[in-house]
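Justification of resources, computational component.

The compute hours requested in this renewal are based largely on the per-chain cost of generating structure records like the one below. Each record pairs the submitted sequence with a full structure-token output. That output is archived, and it is also reused by downstream analysis tasks.
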Amino acid sequence: MSVTQDRTLAAAGLIFVYATVIGYTDNYVRVIAESAGLWQFHFTRTCMAMVLLGLAALVLGLRLRPVNLRAVVARSTIHGLAMVIYFGALAFLPVALVAAGLFTAPIFVLLISRFAYGHAIGPVRIFAVLLGFAGVILVLGPEALSGASLAAVLPILAGAMYAMGNIATREWCAQERAETLLAGFFLALGVIGALGMAALTLWPTEVPAGAEYFLMRGPVWPDGAFWLWTFVQAAGSLIGVGMMIRAYQITDASRASVLEYMILPASAFWSYVIWGQTLGALAWVGMALIVAAGTMIALRARAQEG
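The structure output for this chain reads:
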């Protein structure tokens, strides 16, 4: 596939919107986690998202039927499992360590793209990945490098699977429409959520209220805040994840994965606006490195496409 077929600048714009929307909605997961469980959240969000996507398909004439069902199911399963491992690790590892592990994904994208698919990876892209990951570590703080153990391999595994799913978006599913992959992603998480709810119903565990019990909480009768913010999550995820999927379809995964680092500055911005949480000097340096990495990728792509 020639470089001129990559639309990296357009992908950067799509990922910017994705990061802005998801950075906002994910800040309210803490509200959902206070009273409900992870599995019920995924299942309910999928139900809401599929209703919205179905209505959009009717109004806009979207096509949800996959061209290659096996490829779409495989991609959706990989991404779904990555999210399960990620949230599962949150039950017994520091958030910073888990997030740092997930954001190893661009490194895995480079390795898989080069050695599994034979894509040429230039020094600029390699340097941008390393620069962006250094920025991630600074944003997350020194604790992201502490507490390493065998269990700490799980977030890295999640990062590897997330990378595989992102590569699959272009390598396996380039002919699919973004809304088809979006439906597959939500359905995979919905099935996983339903299985988790069923398991916790058959083998219930009494847990008190509080966000720290998000993973272990079975089905409950949710309050109004759960319905409101899960709906916001469903609508926001449809827009944001749909744009992210499209971005991975129109440019090389190793470029898009570096641009996806923008989610951290976006989340930090909304954390300040919504909750008044501020960042230290190292975090600001880290965000500057993340922006620099994304800018390097975009400018390099523009020079090649021009």
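The chain has one domain: 3-305. Residues 3-305 form one domain.
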